[in-house]
Amino acid sequence: MPDRIELFDRFWLAYPRKEKKKQAFTAFKIVLKSASFDDLMAKLAEYKRTKRVHEGIIQLPTTWLRGDPLSDVYGDIEVTVDDKRLKEMRHSLKEKQAEVEEGEFSLAQCASNWRFRDNIERDLQICQQSVDYLKAEIARLEAKQ
Description:
Elements: H1 4-14, H2 21-32, H3 37-48, H4 51-54, H5 61-66, H6 83-109, H7 114-144
C-alpha cells in the first residue's frame, strides 16, 4: 500500500491549483484519518467538473481539504468534456512517460551507487503512478465523449 507521501503526490498531481503544498499536505493527512484516498479522489473528480472550476475559480487545496470535501454536494457539475483539458492530459502523459524512460536509463547507469539508486527508484515510482493516473483519467474523459 502506498504511504501518505505517495498518496499526496497523486492528489497534488490531480488538484487543479498548485499553491501552499506544505499546508495542503498537513490538511491531507487529517482528511485521510477519517476517509479513504479513493473516496477523496472521487470527490476531487466531482469538484474539478464544477462550473466554478471550469471558470477558473479554484479553491486553494488546503481550503478545499479543510472544508470537509467528502460531504460537499456539487449541483453544478459540467457534463461536457473539455477538449483542451484532455489535450493537456495527453501531453502530460507523454512527458511523464518520457520521464519514466529517462529514470529507467538513469537507474541502469548508477546501479553501483545505492544512494542515487534509491532516489531514482522513488522518483521513477512516482512518475509511473502519474502515468497510470493520467491514463485512467484520459480513458474516463474519452468515454464521456
